[in-house]
Write a structure and sequence with these properties.
The chain has about 525 residues and is an alpha+beta fold. It is about 30% helix and about 30% strand. Helix 3 (about 165-195) runs antiparallel to helix 4 (about 205-225). It comes from Gambusia affinis (Western mosquitofish). Keywords: Coiled coil, Disulfide bond, Glycoprotein, Secreted, Signal, Synapse.
């Protein structure tokens, strides 16, 4: 910026010098060096001065010379009479002077053009400098925004850890219970040791009952501790492609050892035939099945087989029916009070899915909606024998906005849709009567899920996906605390093909609570 400004100063100084030279030299060149000043009235000089020739008729008359606003020389000249000889020497001098003035004018114009160009360069540099200043400000603001984003991300991670606090609190009581068991086992071990030394000191049946009672309590404790929070869902395993777009299929989580029957129900209404396949192998490789005719058609796809009976919602009603496969008869039926039915509060995909029955580690559940709860989901724990409601929980999640739902360890998990990209995004815990929003991806391989239920025995999700029978393995997070250490376990149900048979098994560490030396060893696996 310094060089162009110096150029401008040089130009202005040059123009001022030229103007001063012309004002002094021009009169002498034209013979006007004999001058006098005329006084204005009152003896004071006039504000405009004139240069008067000795003989006005024979010479040029220059009245004034000055600079205009742009620094150019301005002269007022009166030419002599036309009778003057054109070859006068002063006329030649004047012409020469005029030529010089023209040359100087051209030089000034060239200099002016250069000056304008430099001025434009200066203005362009000024714009660039302002742009750089703006960019520096933007960089500074972006830096502040990045710091704010990082802070929000850290805060979000901290919020994600908060749900673990109630889980840890819940297991404090379990840790105390385990300590009590340890103490009782120590006492029992001492008694058994003495009994080994002195036969007959205690009644054998009483001792056996105490051992059996303790073992049952240990198993119940371990079953409770085995429950966990859903943290992941595997990719789908396609078992079979059959049936219509809607339906349900399942196995009995309370089936005795060796009973691997598969139950199959095609459609969501106006059907009452249930297929029974002898094994998973038969279901996968053949169409050999036994057909059971229900006394009433079912509604929706929320049926469940539990302990040898099928529980279903009677079509166009809020009646729940328990049908015993062993006797081929209805063993119990009951109305689910205030529950919406006949497509009043269905899942997002429709299909008369107003009432959804499901099971988990805790037993039998019903998921539905009522007018009293403004169409939001209601969770009810049912007595499997009488179908009476043991306890109900009201949630704030609209039933019609849910794609599907399932229960794991007393927590209802809800998907955000049934087609396209799907995920589990809402969880309501009946243990703490609280809810949270989560983000667990669920691969919707065939783009339309009309049934999704959890099997606590297999630790797997059974799904009907657009005419495909599909399995998902789940991963659960467990926390077990004792006075000595913390144990964190992730257990997952894994599907495995062996000789064409899909075997479902629970992959979990064998959990040996404690050991009674010499006489009795209690192991929960």
């Amino acid at each position: 910026m310094t060089v162009p400004l110096l150029k401008i100063g040089v130009v202005l100084s040059t123009m001022a010098m030229i103007t001063n030279w012309m004002s002094q030299t021009l009169p002498s060149l034209v013979g006007l060096n004999t001058t006098k000043l005329t006084a204005a009235q009152g003896g004071y000089p006039d504000r405009s001065t004139g240069v008067l020739p000795a003989n006005p008729e024979e010479s040029w008359q220059v009245y004034s010379s000055a600079q205009d606003s742009e620094g150019r020389c301005v002269c007022t000249v009166v030419a002599p009479q036309q009778s003057m000889c054109s070859r006068d020497a002063r006329t030649k001098q004047l012409r020469q002077l005029l030529e010089k003035v023209q040359n100087m004018t051209q030089s000034i114009q060239v200099l002016d053009q250069r000056t304008q160009r430099d001025l434009q360069y200066v203005e362009k540099m000024e714009v660039q400098l302002r742009g750089l200043e703006t960019k520096f400000k933007e960089v500074e603001e972006n830096h502040k925004q990045n710091i704010a984003k990082q802070y929000k991300a850290i805060k979000a991670k901290m919020e994600a850890l908060r749900p673990l606090i109630p889980v840890l609190e819940e297991y404090k009581a379990d840790a105390k219970l385990v300590l009590q068991f340890k103490e009782e086992v120590r006492n029992l071990t001492s008694v058994l040791s003495e009994l080994q030394e002195e036969m007959g000191a205690y009644d054998y049946e009483e001792l056996h009952n105490r051992v059996s009672n303790l073992e049952e309590r240990l198993r119940a404790c371990m079953q409770k501790l085995a429950c966990g929070k859903l943290t992941g869902i595997s990719d789908p395993i396609t078992i079979k492609t059959s049936g219509s777009r809607f339906g349900s299929w399942m196995t009995d989580p309370l089936a005795p050892e060796g009973d691997t029957r598969v139950w199959y129900m095609d459609g969501y209404h106006n059907n009452r035939f249930v297929r029974e396949y002898k094994s998973m192998h038969d279901f996968m490789t053949s169409d050999n099945f036994t057909s059971h005719r229900l006394p009433h058609p079912w509604s929706g796809t929320g049926q469940v087989v539990y302990n040898g009976s099928i529980y279903f919602n009677k079509f166009q009603s809020h009646v729940i029916i328990k049908f015993d496969f062993r006797t081929s008869s209805i063993s119990k039926s009951r109305q689910l009070d205030y529950a919406g039915f006949n497509n009043a509060y269905h899942y997002a995909w429709g299909g008369h899915s107003d009432i959804d029955l499901m099971v988990d580690e805790g037993g039998l559940w019903a998921v539905y909606a009522t007018n009293q709860n403004a169409g939001n989901i209601v969770i009810s724990k049912l007595n499997p024998s009488t179908l009476q409601i043991i306890k109900s929980w009201t949630t704030n999640h609209p039933k019609r906005s849910a794609g599907e739902s399932f229960m794991i360890c007393g927590t209802l998990y809800v998907t955000n849709g049934y087609s396209g990209g799907t995920k589990v995004y809402y969880a309501y815990s009946t243990n703490s009567s609280t809810y949270e929003y989560i983000d667990i991806p669920l691969q919707n391989k065939y783009s339309h899920i009309s049934m999704l239920d959890y099997n606590p025995h297999d630790r797997a999700l059974y799904a009907w996906n657009n005419g495909h029978q599909v399995l998902y393995n789940v991963t659960l997070f467990h926390v077990i605390r004792s006075e000595e250490l913390w144990i964190f376990l992730w257990s997952t149900g894994e599907g495995r093909r062996s000789g064409g048979v899909l075997e479902q098994r629970l992959l979990a560490t064998n959990c040996r609570i404690l050991t009674l030396p010499k006489i009795l060893r209690i192991t929960v696996e």
